[in-house]
Each structure stands twice: as C-alpha cells, then as structure tokens.
Amino acid sequence: MQSKDELHAELLDDINIIVNDERLYHETNFNLRAQAIDDIEFHVIDRIAGINKLTTLKQYAEKVKDDLEAVNTQIFCQLRAKISTGELRGQLLLDQISEYFDNDLNSFLREDKPGYDNLDVFFNGLLTDETLPAETEAREPEMVFYQKTPVRIILELIKRADFKPNDVFIDIGSGLGQLSILVNLFTSVIAKGIEFEPAFCSYAYVCAAGLNLTDVEFINTDARDVDYSLGTVFFMYTPFEGKMLQCVLQKLNREAEKRTIRVFTYGPCTVEVGKEGWLVSTGKNTLVEFGEFVSV
Predict the structure, then answer these.
(1) Residue-wise pLDDT tens digits, 16-52
(2) Which CB contacts under 8 angstroms, 24+ apart, belong to 45-50?
(3) In angstroms, how far is CA 37 from the centroid of its own chain?
(4) What residue segments make up the domains of the chain, in order of their start?
(5) What is the sign of the dihedral through the CA atoms of 17, 19, 23 and 27?
(6) Which of 22, 141, 175, 269 is an S-S bond match for 238, by CB 3.0 to 4.6 Å?
(7) Could you tell me the CA-to-CA distances from 89 to 81, 84, 212 in Å, in that order?
(8) Cβ atoms within 10 Å of 132's Cβ, excluding its own
(9) Which residues have C-beta within 8 Å of that of residue 103, sequence separation ≥ 6?
(10) 189 exposure class (CB count in 10 Å sphere: 0-12, 13-18, 19+)
(11) For residue 215, how many C-alpha atoms fall within 13 Å in the half-sphere facing its CB?
C-alpha cells in the first residue's frame, strides 16, 4: 500500500508538471488546458480528499486549477463582449472557436460515442456564468429528465440543416436554451425554444439577453399546447415519450400537410419518429440516435 509520503511526492510531481507546462497558459490551448484541469480535479484533488496531512498539497492543487480556469474565464468574457456587440457571430465565431481546438473541430464531429467532451465544457463557460437552476415543476411521467444536447450534435445539425434566411427553428424541450442560442449565433435564423420548466426558461432568457440576441425566444409552456405554424425546422432530444410524443408528432404532422418541414432528433425518440409515415429519413444518419427527417 502506498504511504502518505509516497502519495504526496507522486501528486506533487503531477502538479508541477502541469505548472511548468507553459502551453497551458496560452489562450488558444483550451483543449489541452481542459484536460489538465480534469487531471488536477479527478487525479489529484479527489485522491487527496479526506487525508489531513495532505491539506497543503490540496490547496496548492486547487490554486493551480483556479489559475488555469482564470485563463478560460478571460477568454469567455472577451468572446461574450464581442458576441453581444454583433462583432463575432456566424462563421467568424466558428473560426475563432476552432482556434481553441487546434483548428480541428471536425475531429469532434466525427465522434460517434455518447456523452460530452471539451466542446461542451467550452460552450458551458462561453454562453453564461450564471448558476444553473434547479427544477421547480414536477415532471409528468412521460417527460424525460433534461440533458443538454452535446455541442458536436448541435454543430452537425447546423451543418445538415443548411438554414435559409426565412427558416424558423424550434427546439421542442429546449431546457437551458443552449441549442436555440447556438443555432441563432451561427446562422442568424429565428430560433425558438419550447420548455415546460419555468426556471430553465428564465435561465435561457438571461443567457440570450446577455449575448444581446434579439431573434431568440423561449416559450414556457407544455409542448402539446404550442402553435407550430411558424416553424420550418424542428429538433427534439427525446424530451418525452409515449402518448405525449405521439401528440406532438400529430401536431407536426398537421403542419406538414400545409408545407414541407424538417425534423431532427437525438436520443431514443429517433426510432419512434422514424416510424411516422408522413416523414422520410434522409438516410444521412451517422449516429444511431441522430435522425434527420423530411415531411412528404
């Protein structure tokens, strides 16, 4: 069994390797810095937890972690300021963000495994510094617990949708609003989020307002009660299932009788949506859980 002195020496070496790596303090090395922050948090601080004789070492590790996160905070503040003035949006914004990921965002888009990555860490920090809200309303049995759509899926959606200026994007079950915000930021199309939880809706409004986005709207209501007549492109990350999902799909079907609409899905609902006879799959699915459908 490793002694406390041996553990102290091992972890101190690990921390000092990070401290002495000058690349981590260069703004554009976000991906590398995010990994270093994870290493400190999970492989150093968590291992020290509860060991009284290593308190000083823990404080040292936390200081290094704080210093690295301060670099990210500065980046996010600078970017938010440029976004809010309209100086940095669309392809310019995407190109700027790509610099923080070795100009290789495509490597993230090629990922076909579930879960989140450093793109999600980046956008969690970029969009707001507000504290995440707790749910205040009890979910109905068919409503699914909220999870953010991975950013790589959002970027893939934007790429595939090829939005036109007159498109209106609607995220059904928009949660904290990230998807609607990013669609508007990168494409300038009108984006709307439908969200049952009022605390999530309020949070999303604050995020959009902080970035001075006037073409993003969040509607706090039950998805079964929404007027979808303005929407042309819809997205669902399995916000609900069963009869509730079928009710919303029936409403979209009625809209599709009037005009062509596109429906993108992520998660288990993709299989159910794919069974709808009024929709046809584009056949472009790169992930089992990611679907792209057009009304017929």
Answers:
(1) 999 999 999 999 999 999 999 999 999 999 988 777 7
(2) 47/7, 47/11, 48/11
(3) 19
(4) 4-88, 133-295
(5) positive
(6) 269
(7) 11, 9, 12
(8) 10
(9) none
(10) buried
(11) 16
